[in-house]
Specification:
Blueprint (H helix, E strand, L loop, with lengths): L2 H18 L5 E9 L6 H11 L9 E7 L1 E5 L4 E5 L14 E5 L3 E8 L1
Parallel strand pairs: 1-2
Antiparallel strand pairs: 1-6, 3-4, 3-5
Helix pairs in contact: 1-2
C-alpha cells in the first residue's frame, strides 16, 4: 500500500502551497491519477483522510480523476492510448512500447479559505 506515502507527500505539498498563499484552511483538493499508476482509489481516499488529520486539509473534499495513459509504439511509430502495462499496440500488435504518460499522481488544484 504505497498510497499512504503518496498522500503524506501530497499533504506536505498542499500545506506548503496553502501557507504560501496565506490560507487558513484547505476546503477542496483535485488530484489526477494516471491509469498506470497502480493507485487504488479506495486506498487513496482512506490514506488521504488519515494523512490530512490535524493539517490545513483535514476534512476537505477530495476530487479524483483518472487520466488515460499514452505510449509510443516503436514498431509502427504511433502514439496510442493504453489502459494497462504489457498491452499491445492496437495498430500493429507490437509490445515494444515506450510509456509516455499515465504513471503519475498530480495535484491539480486547491480550494482554500
Amino acid at each position: 500500500m504505497h498510497e499512504i506515502s503518496l498522500c503524506l507527500s501530497t499533504i506536505e505539498l498542499i500545506e506548503q502551497q496553502a501557507r504560501q498563499h496565506g490560507a487558513r484552511r484547505v476546503t477542496a483538493v483535485w488530484l489526477e491519477i494516471g491509469a498506470l499508476s497502480c493507485i487504488e482509489e479506495h486506498a487513496l481516499r482512506f490514506s488521504f483522510a488519515s494523512a490530512s488529520r490535524r493539517t490545513l486539509a483535514e476534512g476537505c473534499q477530495l476530487h479524483l480523476s483518472v487520466q488515460p495513459a499514452r505510449a509510443w509504439c516503436w514498431d509502427c511509430s504511433a502514439s496510442i492510448v493504453i489502459e494497462r502495462h504489457n498491452e499491445a499496440c492496437p495498430h500493429c500488435g507490437s509490445h515494444v512500447l515506450r510509456i509516455e504518460s499515465g504513471e503519475s499522481l498530480r495535484l491539480k488544484q486547491l480550494e482554500v479559505e
